[in-house]
Amino acid sequence: MGGARTVQRINPEGLRLTERVVHINRVAKVVKGGRRFSFSALVVVGDQGGHVGMGLGKANEVPEAIRKGIEEAKKSLIKVPLRDSTIPHEILGEFGAGRVLLRPASPGTGIVAGGAARAVLEVVGVRDVLSKSLGSDNAHNVVKATLSGLQHLRSAGEVARVRGREATGSAAGAQPGVTPPAVAPPAVAPPAVAPVAVAGEAG
Length: 203
Known about the structure:
- The chain is of the alpha+beta class.
- It is built from 5 helices and 8 strands.
- A 4-stranded antiparallel sheet has the order 1-2-3-4. The protein has a 4-stranded mixed sheet with strand order 5-6-8-7.
- α2 (115-124) runs parallel beside α3 (139-151).
- The termini are far apart.
């Protein structure tokens, strides 16, 4: 998956964040007088420009749980390197039993993802991507696995700096996720061999 990147916390001030409620869970606590219900809300926020965060809020009412989740998500914003409308390269994100595979896609493909992973990819600003959940379908694990994969993405410039090179124009302009075809060497015709006349064969 490549080396881990340094996580840089982002200040939410000045960002136009979009909020998505991924999952709401109701918890019942049995007490002497009956049952007491509380709610937990899993929320993701992003500016659709490469910033995304996740939060979990708990309260006795759903709106309050969502509000707490949004506040926590704003405190955990991270920067994700994007390449046009997709991601720079293929990545496998893992968290607990959750495993999410993300692959770059050509423009016009759309977000091929479901459930929790789609919510994360939409708010981060990815418009073309292929994804597949390979592990647990628990919303918490899927969201955290997707974020783990996005967090480990590296742009061409970052890879070039690590290798001590400068990103070339051809590398920057290559279509994401497509390996350039190998160019076969030009075919060389064998030299023409003149027929050799053998004495005694004529006639």
